[in-house]
Structure formats: structure tokens, C-alpha cells
Design a protein that fits this description.
Elements lengths: L2 H10 L11 H4 L18 E3 L2 E3 L5 H13 L7 H25 L7 H13 L3 H6 L3 H25 L4 H16 L9 H15 L4 H30 L23 H10 L3 E2 L6 E2 L25 H4 L7 H15 L12 H13 L4 H4 L10 H23 L4 H25 L7 H5 L1 H11 L16
Antiparallel strand pairs: 1-2, 3-4
Length: about 475
């Protein structure tokens, strides 16, 4: 739980390895990576040239070093505080982006709809689940999401405002560079985000190639410099720009990808169910879950980590169906000669966010070949999916407000509010039973008190630890 602090202190001393020396017994082994030497390892660190390194990106460690230098402190700051800071950064950036969408002319919204959308963004699974056990794994993911959302926010402001457009685009690119310097999977969407944002600006600038080239440089140069800096960082550590430390890990669970696990993992991340109960915490992602009979599961597929799918937990994402309905409704209205507001035209801003989400979701790709689904990995995609779902909600509620039908307005608002509240409930309570039952094991007295006072039915004396009775 202090890996970023170790990385920070290594930087303070002027080198890229952590200030913990491998034990001589480990270095003397013929194969230090053999699990029989596990008691000599610094778990999940990368061993190279007689030093321990961290395969997680350097940016959070650099930010931690900057904070400690400014604050004038040398005491240890564990990873839970680093992760919490980035979790709040993600929330603030996402909340501001939602507010910006809501104030945009084509998607202007009622305050209660905006408030619910921000609540969903903060409480939607797997964010509370991830925050509940804050190790370096979770902190690195949240750092990547924080910088990703900050970049999207700056890019959006750059798109809709002509004043200070170039500085906003530079800031967006820099944030995306920090995102890929925090989490390797952010290398997947970063170049596409630059291309998509440049294309939207070209469309909005009367197809001016001179301006498009200007915006492309503003968006492309900072993130490219970050990529080059990361390559230099890798070369300094491992004498090659392409090695991040994954292949040099001291771990009993190697990051090995096999194609046979890709579809089962996609199915799990979308549809793995949660268990409900009448006792606190009411909803839980089970370990060793029952596998669906709808698909064929490959031999060796594991379920010992808690995992619950997006559609059962984040029902607000059901509004993605609105994006499929909009073009059909548009074609139908055109066929009937309807030219009123009800004809659902796609704005440039909506198209931008939709395309950004399409390229961000594949950031989960490197984890899909793993032998199991791990709930935190859904965090690489959920922020972008929620933004697209929010825009769907905004468009649908605004369309209903202009329809003139009281019945339609009621049902649209009821459905959106119901999906949002269910998402918040499941996200908040399913986060209580996280990896290793962290809350219950760390504070059993408080957990027991909450269980006894909040449960809606008697709690069995020997209740299941990993699964609720339905």
C-alpha cells in the first residue's frame, strides 16, 4: 500500500528504481522469478539489473513528489490517499463535464436531471467498489481516469469556445499524456482522441485546413512529448523503450493473455449478476459466481475475484439504447416529412463524445485476455460509457419536454430517474463488499452494528461470506 511513495522517494533520490534493495539471496538464485522464491520478493515489483522497479506509470509518483516538496514533508503517504485524490479529481472533472453538457444549447437540462447524472457518475459501480480497497492497482486506474476526464473537459471547452481554444486543447493533450503515463491501457485511446477532436474542430471551423492543422499541433505535440518521455523512462530502467516492466514482474499471477478468455470476459463485464438480500449491505458481487449456461466457458477460467456486469449494476447505461433509437426515429420523421424539434438531429458535440467513448472503451482490451474478470477493470471504460448514457438521458428528457404530452414526459422522467437511483443504490452498497471484504475485516465492530441496525430481516448466525441467499 506504499508503492507510489516508494516510487516518489526513488525519484527524490535521482533514480527510477525504488529505494528497497533486493535481498542478496534472491539475486543469487538461478531464476529469481520462480514462485519458490516468493518469500524474497517485493510483490508485483519488476526485477531488473539488481533493482526493483514499478511497472505502474510514473506520473502519480511524480505528482506525489511535487506535493511532498511543496508541502515540505518526507513522511510516508500510502496509496489510499493517492487514489482518493485521483478519485475526487475524476469526480470533479466528470461533474464539470456533465454541467457543461447540460448548459450547452442543444442539451440544456433541468437541474434535477443534472444532479442525478452527477450522482450516477460518482456512485456507479465499480467506482465505490474500487475505492473501498485502495492499493496501487486501484490508484493507478483512478489516476488514468482522472486525467482522461480532465482532458475530455478541456477538449470540450476548447470545442465550444473560440476564445482560449488553443490553450484548452494543449491542456487536454497534456492531460491525456498524463493519463497514459499513469495507466498503460490509456495508450489505446489517446491518439484517437486527438484525431477525433481535431476532426470535430475542422467541421466546426468551416472546413478550414489551416485551422485544423493548428489544432492538430496543439492536440498532438504535448501527448507526443509525453509518449517520448515515457519511452526514455522505460529505456532508463530496462534498456528498451518497449518494456514497461510487465514481463519482469515478481508475481504468482503473470499477466498472460489468451484469446479463449476474451469473449467470456466480455460477457462477464456486461452481464455477470449480483446477489440481493434483505440484510446489509443488501447487494453484493459474489465470488466463485455461477457461470451462465448461455455461453461455453473455457477450461481454466477463474471466478475467485468479485465481479458484476455493467448492465445488472449500472442500469443507467440501459439508456444507451436511445442512441440506437435516435437514427431510426430520425429516418421515420424524415419519411413522414416532419421537420420539428422532434426530429432527432445529432449535434457535433454529441458526435464528439460518442466517438470518444467508442475509442475509450477498448482501453479494457489488454485485460480481456486474462483468465478471469476483475471488477476494477470495468473502471477503464465506465466513465466514458456514463457520459454517453448521460447525453442520451439529456436528449430524451428534453425531447419529452418539448413533445407537449404530459404522459410521455412523466414516463421518460420516471424511467431516467428510476435507472439512475437504482444505479446509485447498487453501486454504493455493492462497494461495501469489495476485494477481501476489506470493510468487514478492518472494522468488524462497525460492520456488525450497521448489519444489525440496517438489515430488513434477521441476519443468519452463519451467513455465507461470499454469496447471499436470494
Amino acid at each position: 500500500m506504499n508503492y507510489y511513495d516508494l516510487l516518489c522517494e526513488g525519484f527524490r533520490q535521482g533514480h527510477t528504481y525504488v529505494p528497497i534493495a533486493p535481498r542478496p539471496e534472491l539475486l543469487a538464485k538461478a531464476n529469481p522469478f520462480d514462485p519458490v522464491n516468493m518469500n524474497l520478493w517485493l510483490w508485483d515489483a519488476s526485477l531488473y539489473n539488481k533493482h526493483f522497479y514499478m511497472y505502474w506509470g510514473p506520473v502519480p509518483g511524480l505528482f506525489l513528489l511535487a506535493f511532498k516538496l511543496i508541502a515540505g514533508i518526507r513522511s510516508q503517504i500510502i496509496d489510499q490517499w493517492v487514489g482518493l485524490a485521483f478519485a475526487l479529481g475524476r469526480l470533479y472533472a466528470g461533474g464539470l463535464l456533465i454541467l457543461s453538457f447540460a448548459n450547452y444549447a442543444r442539451t440544456r437540462q433541468r437541474p434535477w436531471v443534472v444532479g442525478l447524472a452527477i450522482l450516477v457518475f460518482g456512485l456507479c459501480s465499480p467506482t465505490p467498489f474500487t475505492i473501498a480497497r485502495m492499493h496501487v492497482y486501484e490508484a493507478s486506474l483512478l489516476a488514468g481516469q482522472c486525467f482522461l476526464m480532465c482532458g475530455l473537459l478541456a477538449a470540450f471547452w476548447g470545442i465550444i469556445r473560440e476564445t482560449k481554444r488553443v490553450p484548452m486543447l494543449v491542456l487536454a493533450s497534456l492531460c491525456w499524456g498524463f493519463a497514459l503515463g499513469s495507466r498503460v491501457s490509456m495508450w489505446v485511446p489517446a491518439p484517437f482522441l486527438v484525431i477525433i477532436t481535431t476532426a470535430i474542430l475542422w467541421i466546426r471551423s468551416d472546413r478550414s485546413y489551416r485551422l485544423a492543422l493548428k489544432y492538430l499541433f496543439a492536440l498532438g505535440i504535448p501527448v507526443t512529448l509525453c509518449v517520448v518521455a515515457h519511452g526514455i523512462y522505460n529505456y532508463e530502467r530496462f534498456n528498451t523503450v518497449a518494456e514497461f516492466g510487465i514481463n519482469l514482474q515478481l508475481t504468482g499471477q503473470k499477466f498472460v493473455r489468451e484469446s479463449k478468455y476474451i469473449f467470456p470476459n466480455i460477457f462477464s463485464y456486461l452481464f455477470a449478476s449480483v446477489d440481493y438480500s434483505c440484510w446489509f449491505p443488501f447487494v453484493i458481487a459474489p465470488t466463485y459466481r455461477h457461470l451462465s449456461t448461455l455461453i461455453k466457458w473455457p477450461a481454466g477460467y477463474a471466478t475467485f475475484e468479485r465481479a458484476a456486469g455493467m448492465f445488472p449494476t449500472a442500469t443507467f447505461t440501459w439508456l444507451l439504447a436511445v442512441w440506437l433509437w435516435r437514427p431510426l426515429a430520425y429516418l421515420w420523421s424524415r419519411a413522414r416529412g416532419v421537420t420539428s424539434y422532434r426530429a432527432p438531429r445529432l449535434s457535433a458535440v454529441e458526435l464528439w463524445m460518442l466517438l470518444c467513448a467508442v475509442v475509450i472503451v477498448p482501453a479494457m482490451g489488454p485485460t480481456l485476455g486474462q483468465w478471469e474478470a476483475s471488477m476494477r477493470y470495468l473502471g477503464d471504460a465506465i466513465s466514458a460509457i456514463l457520459m454517453v448514457s448521460t447525453l442520451a438521458c439529456f436528449w430524451w428528457t428534453r425531447r419529452a419536454d418539448y413533445s407537449g404530452s404530459m404522459k410521455e414526459r412523466f414516463w421518460v422522467h420516471f424511467i431516467c430517474a428510476g435507472l439512475a437511483l437504482h444505479t446509485c443504490f447498487v453501486g454504493a452498497f455493492s462497494g461495501i463488499a469489495t476485494y477481501n471484504d476489506q470493510f468487514e475485516n478492518s472494522n468488524p465492530a462497525l460492520y456488525k452494528k450497521l448489519e444489525q441496525s440496517l438489515s430488513l430481516c434477521p441476519v443468519p448466525a452463519e451467513r455465507p461470506r461470499t454469496k447471499f441467499c436470494r
